[in-house]
Task: structure prediction
Amino acid sequence: MPQLEIEYSANLPIAEMLRGLAISLHREIAKAADADLDSFKTRLSPLENVVIADGGPKHGMVHLDVRLLSGRSDKVKHSVGAIALETVRAHLENLVGNFDVQFTVEVHDLDRANYHKHVTNA
Result:
């Protein structure tokens, strides 16, 4: 926990900045959600087949899915979403050039009773 997934239009010129974005998101969300930084995981998923608006080639999207263990208040989840969107925009918005990009964030609960984890340390 927390689990993050960044899905993005593969045609956007942002791939090189995504690792830095993930690290920033880990730090910001850890503070906002009172979560352990070492427990964060982020998947980066380029999407080759995306249709946005009229389907034109200058449309793109970046969507962040945030999953937190259940039990956090709606206020905390709202704060996490707002901070996450601000962080995504700060890292990527100036890189998208001539693309019309939709930046979105959704915060979900991971059911605490059904989440299982094992960590092997070297």
Observations:
- The helical segments are 18-33, 74-92.
- The chain is about 30% helix and 30% strand.
